[in-house]
Specification:
single chain, about 80 residues, alpha+beta, 4 helices, about 55% helix, about 10% strand
């Protein structure tokens, strides 16, 4: 699917995978394109990581901001592991 991505992932010990690129202006102007970019990017990273048997670390800034509003602070770490 993405030959260069497979080569790059092969050189890594861990793949960091942000959940989504969220730029509200882009989302409003081109919602379909923004969603396609997020889905295809995530798909490529996960396929390459799975094929090369690499650990994936999921990063979600949305969780940080949501919890900030709920708790009044910035929890920069989420204590969950997903495999």
């Amino acid at each position: 699917m993405y030959p260069v991505l497979y080569e790059l992932v092969d050189e890594c010990d861990v793949v960091v995978s942000p959940c989504a690129a969220v730029e509200f202006v882009s989302l409003l102007k081109a919602p379909v394109r923004t969603i396609e970019t997020n889905v295809r990017g995530k798909e490529g990273r996960l396929q390459a990581s799975w094929k090369k048997k690499k650990i994936v670390v999921r990063a979600s800034p949305v969780e940080v901001y949501r919890k900030k509003r709920q708790q009044g602070g910035y929890p920069f770490a989420k204590k969950t592991m997903t495999y």
